[in-house]
Write a structure and sequence with these properties.
Elements: H1 22-25, H2 40-43, E1 56-62, E2 71-77, E3 87-92, E4 95-99, E5 104-105, E6 107-111, H3 118-126, H4 132-142, H5 148-152, E7 156-160, E8 171-175, E9 180-185, E10 188-192, E11 197-199, H6 201-204, E12 209-215, E13 218-223, E14 226-231, E15 234-238, E16 247-253, E17 258-263, E18 267-272, E19 282-286, E20 299-302, E21 308-312, E22 315-319, E23 324-328, E24 334-339, E25 345-349, E26 352-357, H7 363-372, E27 386-390, E28 401-407, E29 410-415, E30 418-423, E31 428-435, E32 445-455, E33 461-477, E34 485-503, E35 507-521, E36 531-544, E37 552-561, E38 579-590, E39 594-605, H8 618-627, H9 635-643, E40 647-656, E41 660-669, E42 674-685, E43 689-698, E44 710-717
Antiparallel strand pairs: 1-30, 2-3, 3-4, 4-5, 6-7, 8-9, 9-10, 10-11, 12-13, 13-14, 14-15, 16-17, 17-18, 18-19, 20-21, 21-22, 22-23, 24-25, 25-26, 26-27, 28-29, 29-30, 31-32, 31-44, 32-33, 33-34, 34-35, 35-36, 36-37, 37-38, 38-39, 39-40, 40-41, 41-42, 42-43, 43-44
Helix pairs in contact: 3-4
């Protein structure tokens, strides 16, 4: 094994320096500045300070506005299966945008089938033949198709979202049951079924759509000229009895099978729809005498307990299903309200966002609510209510927030800076396996790694890892008879705890504490002491995101800080592989369908012995080994010799449609006589599962004992 691990020559516990992760190993073993998955615990624990490993605030789409929002409304599709991906649509002042999990896109991709032309695909997409020539011209221009020859090579056509809907979006709703996207504008109602658009101008007429809500197979439509119900392809006007036909907001309560309607100037109406032809709709109207804040509610939401929340300019009205309560927001303007799957209420205001977890949304609170019953005191404050304020001082880049939408564990904010996201990091579980030195064909010579990262909200991320190497079985003669052969296994295991936290200006700091156990010989065959040792080590890493330019990262790590170890003789100590690790990574390309990253690392072991041959402590060895390289020389020669004593790693990763990744890397180790090219690929299944594979091709004129070595990795997010 010596040629393969000579970068750790002169040191013990080589498992501390055994790189992990099939993804990084397919990129030439570069990962210090990348550090964006659970293997960051090995390469650079400072990566635990940033997303996707840590909860993170980020501006997802920059568009500064002052008086009116650019992002007017939002809707999402939740994951409906293990392999499904979540999606987000946003209505803007210029049409529709879609977030595909990585990027915002302004188009829908259509694959041409058979002999179909661009015009054929456009006809299906726009849903009409009127203006088809002009639509086709716009699509060809959007796809940079200039002539027939260009068109003959087109397989995938990008259809602009604003080809049909190019007006301000006033309401947007994704119906999970029918898998259709409904869009309201000042000029009417539109529907997208995944293939093409349909306009309902002839059926509904030209109305300014102000609100949309789904009720099973039915769609409720609020306009400035009344309330409409769409069912089985037919439209029916409802709520003609209301004092105001200007509808500001709608919400359907599935718990109680009721529709709540914010009628501007009239208050909040409740509708219990008729259940049969012979039945009648039952309406009731709440006004200021009933306890609502005013008659001009601008938004409505229903929480997990069936309570109704209404947004007003000066605060909130809360319907407990028994009475209305008020929550005043002094010197502030409430713009919208939403509810997440955990029962928290999100309130968008001109002074940031408030997250409110009512006491009844918790298990103990629900019990207490039942016990309080009708005897609850008027205006009483629940002691378990939780309020959290997000603003420009603790995450948001702007205090002016027009809309908020929880999506799973994430939250989206439409602000005066554009679209912002609070990304709630997943737990990440990773596993890795490689059979070492395949040219030697030793079946029990292998390497295993497992890791788990756990985000800690604003505190950063903690991780746990295990790195194990089996050195195989050794056969030696017995104590009495030379023909009596005894076999024993040798192995090393390293267990670690890592933590990373973030500092201002995109700085991250990480620390790993590792404990190791090395068993090289049990001593069973010789009667001598066991060749085992136990010890500990530390890694300290920093990571700077967006260095000089966006998406350029710089990393610096000092790994394996710890005392020397001995196996049998206390007078003979071996240092552990103290190593400097310097890394750079840059995202060359970041488009909706493509992502291209390059990364480079430099690893330099810095163990150093004093005049007596004893290892120097880390605070001396970390610089003295660099100043005094093993290969002697003066001036530039010494600097070159010191540089070439390290290992150079460079790699690249190309990701298509966040589904498949292709990787290429190169490793050069002059001391260890390694000259290798790495190949790798990965498959991303939905948002939760990723499989990676990598292999080595030796391109040098040395032994090439790692030639053909294969690595397998898995990453699971939950």
């Amino acid at each position: 094994m010596a040629p393969a691990i000579s970068f750790a020559a002169g040191s013990a516990i080589i498992t501390l320096e055994m790189p992990v992760g099939a993804r990084q190993l397919g990129m030439g073993e570069a990962g210090a500045a990348l550090a964006d998955d659970a293997t960051a615990m090995y390469y650079n624990p400072a990566g635990l300070a940033f997303g996707p490993l840590a909860d993170e605030w980020r501006v997802s789409y920059t568009k500064e506005t002052k008086e009116a929002p650019f992002f007017t409304s939002m809707t999402s599709r939740s994951k409906n299966g293990f392999f499904a991906k979540s999606e987000l649509w946003a209505g803007t002042a210029e049409g529709i945008l879609k977030f595909d999990g990585e990027q915002w896109v302004d188009y829908h991709s259509v694959t041409l089938q058979g002999n179909a032309k661009v015009r054929d695909a456009v006809k299906v997409y726009v849903g009409t033949e009127r203006g088809l020539d002009e639509y086709s011209r716009q699509v060809k221009k959007f796809n940079d198709i200039k002539n027939a020859d260009d068109e003959s090579h087109v397989v995938e056509v990008k259809m602009p979202w604003n080809l049909v809907v190019n007006d301000t979006v006033t309401a947007v709703l994704y119906d999970d049951r029918t898998e259709k996207l409904w869009v309201g504008t000042p000029k009417g109602l539109f529907r997208f079924d995944g293939k093409g658009w349909k306009s309902y101008e002839s059926e509904l007429g030209v109305h300014r759509i102000s609100a949309l809500a789904s009720q099973g197979a039915s769609l409720w439509i609020g306009t400035e000229n009344g309330l409409f119900l769409y069912r089985n392809g037919q439209f029916e006007q409802k709520g003609k009895v209301l004092p105001s036909q200007k509808i500001n907001a709608l919400v359907w309560s599935e718990n109680r099978k009721e529709l709540y309607v914010a009628a501007d100037g009239a208050g909040i109406a409740r509708l219990v729809p008729k259940k049969s032809v012979n039945d009648k709709d039952r309406w009731s109207l709440f006004n200021e005498e009933d306890g609502i804040m005013d008659l001009h509610a601008t938004d409505l939401a229903v929480d997990s307990s069936g309570h109704i929340w209404a947004a007003h300019k000066g605060g909130l009205s809360h319907f407990t299903l028994r009475k209305w309560e008020q929550v005043q927001f002094a010197d502030n303007t409430v713009n919208s309200i939403s509810v997440d799957q955990r029962g928290s209420i999100w309130i968008a205001t001109d002074k940031g966002v408030w997250k409110h977890l009512p006491d009844y949304a918790t298990a103990s609170g629900r019990k207490a609510e039942l016990e309080r019953g009708a005897a609850e005191e008027e205006g009483s404050v629940k002691k378990d209510d939780e309020w959290t304020h997000f603003h420009s001082g603790n995450g948001l880049s702007s205090n002016k927030v027009w809309a908020v939408l929880p999506q799973g564990n994430d939250v989206w904010f439409s602000t005066s800076k554009g679209m912002e996201q609070y990304k709630d990091a997943d737990y990440q579980l990773t596993a890795f396996y490689e059979k070492l030195l395949p040219i030697l064909n030793i079946p029990d010579l292998y390497h295993l790694y497992g890791g788990l990262t756990i985000p800690l909200n604003d505190w950063g991320t903690i991780g746990f890892s295990v790195n194990f190497v089996s050195f195989g079985s050794t056969v030696v003669s017995g104590d009495v008879d030379a023909d009596d052969l005894v076999a024993y296994n040798s192995s090393e295991i390293v267990g670690g705890i890592s933590y990373g936290t973030r500092f201002p200006n995109d700085w991250g700091l990480g620390l790993s504490i590792k404990f190791f156990y090395s068993d090289l010989s049990s001593g069973a065959s010789t009667g001598e002491e066991e060749a085992t040792t136990f010890g500990y080590a530390f890694d300290i890493g920093v990571l700077k995101k967006n260095l000089i330019v966006d998406k350029l990262n710089l990393a610096l790590v000092l790994a394996n800080i710890g005392p020397s170890v001995y196996y049998v003789d206390k007078t003979i100590e071996d240092p552990i592989p103290l190593t400097w690790r310097l890394g750079l990574s840059y995202e060359l390309l970041s488009l909706a369908d493509y992502k291209w990253i390059i990364a480079a690392d430099y690893n330099r072991e810095v163990v150093y012995d004093d005049d007596k041959g004893d290892p120097e402590p880390f605070y001396i060895a970390c610089w003295k080994s660099i100043v005094n390289p093993e290969r002697e020389g003066d001036g530039l020669t010494a600097a070159k010799n010191s540089l070439m004593q390290g290992v150079f790693n460079v790699g690249t990763e190309f990701i298509y449609s966040n589904t498949i990744a292709l990787r290429l890397g190169y490793l050069y180790d002059d001391t260890g006589k390694r000259n290798e090219v790495d190949f790798g690929f990965g498959f991303m299944l939905s948002d939760v599962l990723q499989f990676d594979f990598a292999t080595i091709k030796d391109v040098g004129d040395h032994d090439g004992v790692r030639d053909g070595q294969m690595r397998f990795g898995m990453l699971f997010k939950f």
